[in-house]
Amino acid sequence: MSEHILVVDDSASIRQMVEVTLKSANYQVTLASDGQEAFDLCKSKSFDFVLTDQNMPRMDGLTLIKSLRGLATYRTKPIVVLTTEATDEMKARGKAAGATGWMIKPFDPAKLLQVASKVLG
Amino acid sequence: MNIKGFFSKPIYQLSFGLIVSLLIGLLLFQFLPKEVVLIIVIAACYLSGYTALKTHSVMDSTDTQDFNQDNSATPAHPQFADIQSVQNQLLQSFVSTLFECKQNIEEANSVKSDAISTLSESFTQQKELAELQQERVTHLLAADDEESWLACVAKETSLTLEQIVATTAHMSEESMDILEKVEKINSSVPDVLKAMKDIDQIASQTNLLALNAAIEAARAGEAGRGFAVVADEVRSLSTRSSGFSHQIQAKLQNMAQQIESLTQDISQVASQDVTYVSEAKKNVQDSIQKLMSNATDNKEHTAALEEHNRTLQQSLFDAMRGLQFGDITSQSLIYTNTKIEKISQLLEELMEPQAIVNKEKLQQLINELSTFNEAGHNPVSATSMQSGDIDLF
């Protein structure tokens, strides 16, 4: 059974491109369009890896990470932020919130697969 | 000179208008395309000039009435109201221009989102097709492996042909050997026949001798009777011997004919040209070589196809990276839109009565804009579509 990845982004085109990229490497993919939807999904399901955007309506990426780290299932699961935010300050905030990594958009599909493989390995 | 007095001078009014226009231009330059900013600044400058000229004209018509000395002038004064009206028009034009900009940005965003959606679907389909192509190419490469059935068939056929050629050559050699032996036998037949004729000759002479003996026995009378019996027996033997000799000769003749016929047949077999088998073998091997060569060509083609496929895959990955401009520009445009909305809001406040000539109010608006700018930041820092940095903590 392949690893199950949750992709969280309010942009439909980004969700689709990430989904296509991950599925090409035979990962299972579930999509959520904001942090709140992702958090609701995570409460009932255990994903192996969460890839989230930062700026989203209802709940942003850092809030989602803090919320997930409060759940026993997601205390140590890899959660990587995929965002346009590139400042050191935002990265530091992400690290403090419990993010496993920080990827700046635009992402390269091959590099995304490398990151997925590394954090899931 | 108070503020009202200051604005009553056309030159001061023009200067203030130009400075405000340039300041607004500099502010907008961060968020709007330079062409739009330029149009706004030119329009603002034009209106400043128009306002100043209008004021000058009003002052001329009132025969140099000095508002500096008229500290009791109120907004209700016809000339001041006129100036304020023009100022409001100016501000209104800023608001409407900005509103138009906002509408344009929203429309562009909508069109771009639609285009991105279409392109995304198209590229997704292309990627799926590339994967299917890759699958077929992999099958082709597996079928054309060196250890494929074609190589096995070629090897087996070559072995069989070798065996056929060897067997045929062996048969040819044996035929020649048989022919040689049969010819030897055939060549001995005349000698045998000659020997048989000699026997026949001896029998004939014996018969003649026995006849003479019988004659001599008859002459001898009674004394020769016994000898006559022996002579008769000898004649009889010679006659039988001669008869056997004829029979044997006849059979030998028959045998000689059959051997002659056999020699001809064997000679015909042995003289067959077996080189055609070697040629046939060579032809078949050439054909197999061509088949193998074609198979190698196919393998090269399929390998090239696989390389093309890898390139296509990379190209699609690049396209996918490029397509992310939709999300990136959206975030930037949304942020710019909030800026424009804020500016629009401040300009509306500036349009309130006396606001434009109220120092405290102007300072408040400047502070408000400054606070707004410090509170937010553009979430997008990318200036190109190169893939962004990755940090794993």
UniProtKB/TrEMBL annotation, chain A:
Query: Residues in domain Response regulatory?
Result: 4-120
Record the organism: Shewanella gaetbuli
Which Pfam family is one of those matched by this entry? Response_reg
* Record keywords, A-Z: Phosphoprotein
SUPFAM superfamilies assigned: CheY-like (SSF52172)
Residue list for modification 4-aspartylphosphate: D53
Q: In its keyword annotation, does this UniProt entry include Ion transport?
A: no
Stored InterPro entries: Bact_response_regulator, CheY-like_superfamily, Sig_transdc_resp-reg_receiver
Kindly provide the name given to this protein in its UniProt entry.
Answer: Response regulator
